[in-house]
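User: Predict Alanine racemase's structure from this.
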Amino acid sequence: MVTPLPDGLATPALVVDPDVLDRNISRMAEASRAQGFALRPHAKSHKCAQIADRQLRSGARGLSVATIGEAEAFAGAGVDDLFIAYPVWLDADKAQRLRRLADDVALRVGVESVEGARRLGEAVRGSARTVEVLVEVDSGSHRTGVQPHAAGEVGKAAADAGLNVVGVFTFPGHGYGHDARARERAARDEERTLGEAAQALRDLGLGARVVSGGSTPTVGQWQPGAVNELRPGVYVFNDATQLAIGTCGVEDLALVAAATVISVPAPDRFVLDVGSKVLGSDRSSWVTGHGYLPQFPQGSITGLWEHHAVVRLPEGVRGPRLGALVAVVPNHICTPVNLADELLVVRDREVIDRWQVTARGANT
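Assistant:
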């Protein structure tokens, strides 16, 4: 778990334990390597150049990102192999930005429609490097992605538009659940749908050397075979949701929001100076309240405003004093990171570094 917070820390602040972080990164890299998977972690969870560097030095093949803006930020930080794992719909501005990226880095982009593939091909035609395309498939989360049998139609449109079709990808959002059975079912769904989609491309003579899946909940359930690339993101920090569904332990939590007790209105209630503008407002079906409190695991954040978090304690549990520092593990780590300017790196109660959130707000 995150190292004890430094005395006198200005709050609210996001605090990272570098030793837990490095252990999480190394464990995922070693597990992927041992099972024969390429690792292309999703950087939208941390948005930080220093963390990306740690992942790449541990053996990651490249990075996944969610937006052109994130790709630009990491390209500017020296990352030269990027996959925009998103069905980008290009307007004139985004088309120009994507073309510049295609001239500078090895670039992959997700597509899930014939129209989107044609727009992408037109935008990057004549770029210095050939843009690679992965067709997105819906493996059960019912967000974006085509059905496996339709992957060939989208892939052919991309190839006709001059793009280099290299495979398929998916997001297993339905892998979140209270037990490993839900995660295993989602992993099997991924394997089946990605395998069918890859075959649909091959039947048309298109490339399918990259078969990309995996999220933090499902990554440990993979069986070597059809899939050869994994894209987990949250694992670098973990969060209250991952803790609740059992994909990590308390010792694997690498980031907390540090907060100060600003009010103690009752023995069973106290208020922190951290709210939705720091924690985000994500609720979780698996977490009671708005975050996990390592120092008060039986407590619950029952109320969240922009700058207030109200914590209730069960009867008989002693609360903190006014002015005390309290750590909060957010429900979903990606949102707080996107809201922060920097991450404080703390070891042995000392701030040893400050990492800028390189892709903060890079949402287009």
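The chain is about 30% helix and 20% strand.
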